[in-house]
Amino acid sequence: MNIRLLLACLLVIFAACGGGDSTNSGNNSSDKQIFIYNQPNAVTSLDPAFARSQTNIWAVDHMYNGLVQLDADLNVKPSITKDWKISEDGLTYTFNLRDDVYFHDNECFTNGKGRRVVANDFVYSFNRIIDKTVNSPGAWIFKDRVADKEPFQALDDKTFVLKLKKPFRPMLGILSMQYCCVVPKEAIDKYGKEFRSKPVGTGPFQLVKWLENQALLMNKNEKYFEAGLPKLDAVRVNFMEDRNTAYLELMNGKLDFISGLESSFADELLTETGELKPKHQGKLNFQKSPFLNTEYLGFNMDFTGKRKDSPLRHKKVRQALNYGFDRAKMMQTLRNGVGYPANSGFVPKGLPSFNADLVKGYNYDPSKAAKLLAEAGYPNGKGLPEIELRTNSDYLDICTYIARQWEDLGVKVKIELMQSATLRELMSKGQADFFRASWIADYPDAENFLTLFYSKNPAPPNYTRFKNVEYDKLYETALNENDDTKRYELYQKMDKIVIEEAPVIFLYYDETARFSNAKVKGIANNAINLLSVKNISK
């Protein structure tokens, strides 16, 4: 039996029999609402402690919950907690939990029935994240932030307390990350490392079958605590690496949803201005919205040793390169209008502190670029050695576009292609002088982007080795500022320093590009590109 037929059979069987307590009884399988989408990269773990990649994050979000969640506008809202209180000194967060949230039915519990979530479950789950024996990639979210002794406490079953070492305003946003989903100790004790493939959560869907590298099947959690949700009966995730194949499956009605824009089918779907072509309207839905991802070219700002004579040490050279290419044209010709030219600072469009009127960056101004090069001692590029730019193949078209425009200024660029993992290693070790990179938000606060230029941070995230005393003071002040308006003003001052010193070439602020069957309703756009399936219907 081929894999597609096997998957179809499994879904029909579980939909018809109810999959335990996971589907409505009495309905025919033909009445079931089954949402099918594709992920080009396979899930590696269904354990929230390892929810690092987008693929893992989406799957975990389907099956688990945390204390809080983000709405479509990235506002922090209650989830398992009813409400919370932050102490005046910003060090103590007290959460009052709901009493109607239950773990999925599972053999790890007495009589196989999921028990109620209590505050101790969060104490256990959060301590597990920082447990060195677990080796969670999410350990950084609490590192040097939570109190050294008993940072997580349960005052009673319904009251959970988190204590910080020093105020950190973005903490609520961090708690919305999938790393912070609650897990039961009974499941970890029973399954050990196999918990990665035997998830036990509280979420709107629960696992039916995971065929690794092929498909993930989930059925509705009938005991889910958010009234009226989920609306679907089942979710299926396919893992087709070839985006072109996934595109064809969507067009043939075999997929309900794909995310991301591939250049091979971009022109078929979208106009030059980034709108769905008329011939697809009525058959497909297309959504795009700000995505908290800044694409950039970075300089290694450690101009010591062999780099002490690098022409890139001159601020005016770095500024000239920023003025020397047309971002708007680049977005139109290479990305079909999906994304925004980075004409402001490093903080991307979509965050509440973003203000392009107050934070003005670089536009296309070749005459100003030429003037800056001359002032730096390189008129028309004379005397400027060839610059080596390292990138992966996915960004070759963008890097080539920029390099050709720089040639008009007399700047010669050699593009060196390498694997993403190799490039990241060189960036981390400080062995890449000029490199293509991006930064996607871990949580919805500008601090997550501005931390890349804080001199006390290693690489990652400070791949550029940027150092600026004034910047560091502003950064540290912002961490202790609880007034949003004042904190945003500090963020904007920091962004202006980054623009002035130009440790990076600002490329663009990304947008999500989502295509779905027109019959699908309730897919909410958000700037962290999270696919929340609980509100979706067909």
Q: Layout of helices and strands, plus pairs?
A:
Blueprint: H1 3-17, E1 34-38, H2 54-63, E2 68-70, E3 76-78, E4 81-86, E5 92-97, H3 119-130, E6 152-156, E7 159-163, H4 171-175, H5 185-191, E8 205-211, E9 215-220, E10 234-238, H6 243-251, E11 257-259, H7 263-269, E12 284-299, H8 315-323, H9 327-335, E13 340-341, H10 366-375, E14 387-391, H11 396-407, E15 413-417, H12 420-429, E16 434-440, H13 447-450, H14 469-479, H15 484-501, E17 504-517
Parallel strand pairs: 1-10, 14-15
Antiparallel strand pairs: 2-3, 4-5, 5-7, 6-7, 8-9, 9-10, 11-17, 12-16, 12-17, 13-17
Provide the descriptors you would attach to this structure in a database record:
alpha+beta, D-Maltodextrin-Binding Protein, domain 2, Dipeptide-binding Protein, domain 1, Dipeptide-binding Protein, domain 3, 3 domains, 5-stranded antiparallel sheet, 4-stranded mixed sheet, 15 helices, 28% helix
Largest sheet: 5 strands, antiparallel
What structural category do the secondary elements indicate? alpha+beta
* CATH superfamily grouping of the largest domain: Dipeptide-binding Protein, Domain 3
Q: In CATH terms, what is the architecture of the largest domain? A: Roll
Helix coverage percent: 25-40%
Number of distinct beta strands = 17
Would you kindly provide a written description of the structure presented here, covering whatever features stand out?
This protein has 538 residues and is α+β, with helices and mostly antiparallel strands. The chain folds into 3 domains: 1-63 and 203-256, Periplasmic binding protein-like II (D-Maltodextrin-Binding Protein, domain 2, 3-Layer(aba) Sandwich), CATH 3.40.190.10; 65-198, Dipeptide-binding Protein, Domain 1 (Dipeptide-binding Protein, domain 1, Alpha-Beta Complex); 291-511, Roll (Dipeptide-binding Protein, domain 3). Helices cover 28% and strands 19% of the residues. The protein is built from 15 helices and 17 strands. The chain has helices at residues 3-17, 54-63, 119-130, 171-175, 185-191, 243-251, 263-269, 315-323, 327-335, 366-375, 396-407, 420-429, 447-450, 469-479, 484-501, and strands at 34-38, 68-70, 76-78, 81-86, 92-97, 152-156, 159-163, 205-211, 215-220, 234-238, 257-259, 284-299, 340-341, 387-391, 413-417, 434-440, 504-517. The strands form 5 sheets. Strands 11, 12, 13, 16 and 17 form a 5-stranded antiparallel β-sheet that branches. A hairpin with a 3-residue loop joins strand 8 and strand 9 (215-220). The protein is globular, with a radius of gyration of 25 Å.
